[in-house]
């Protein structure tokens, strides 16, 4: 991949927790040409004081309306940083879980899209069936189904809301593709040229 006019490429990986975003981001960082900075939810949350956790990692459900104004500010700040890195010629991969399942609509995704206006952005939906997500949650966090066998409400809400409105340049399914295969599809999409969906997201 070739940088144009010293502007770095931006790849946004949007999906639920345990959908495989971080694994794809790692492949991109280690194998794609040039310097790739990872500015995503996990890294950003490490900067947030404990009393404002989980910050931008807040799950859908409107559980912490007191945090929501700060979360809006944090998303704006993170995306301003993403834009700054790109304008300085550094490529950026972002693993994030966008949703609008707050106590009131916060319109965070369109706001963030407008911040990146004019920059080369590939918006990727990282999809994974909920049964596979549950297997990974149990394996990683030892947290699985409710006692009655049902899926915990926050997990179900993630699955329902993270891909709304579902406008993407590319979608990958990590239940059938390895991180390397997903990264290869992303590389091909960038190298073959594409018309970004960013404007459609800005106008939501």
From TrEMBL:
**Cited InterPro entries:** CPT (IPR012853), P-loop_NTPase (IPR027417)
The protein in question is named Chloramphenicol phosphotransferase CPT family protein
